[in-house]
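Reviewer 2 asked us to include a model.

Predict the structure of this chain.
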Amino acid sequence: MADDLENCGICGLDAEPVLLQMCFRCDVQYHLNPYSNREGIDCGDAIIGPELGVYYYCSPCLVAINDEINALVLQESQALEVQRTPGWTATPPMSPAAPAPAATSDAPRPPRPAGAPARRRFRRID
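Predicted model (structure tokens):
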């Protein structure tokens, strides 16, 4: 049984392969507890998407996606404010989001969703 264990790319702990999921963005395996009636570690989340069904993202990628969405919303609101108020200048954002880790797998990657990901995240219901 100990030989069947694999490591989580986020926390580094061992887990059974059934408790690990591959991140759509960075191809890292992370803990995702598929059971609602058992205790477990979650180092990421599953989100219901508009095209492929369920998208799997690790915690660092979720933070990066959230930062990208916030930057887009800030840019849109600043553009609207510039249009609404002549003479108003927008200040640049504090710092850009960190780039995603490079993919290390030779396997084909799943297609990326068109446009920005949805802002609303869905959680498992117990």
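The chain has a mean pLDDT of 77. Helices lie at 59-84. We have added this to the supplementary material.
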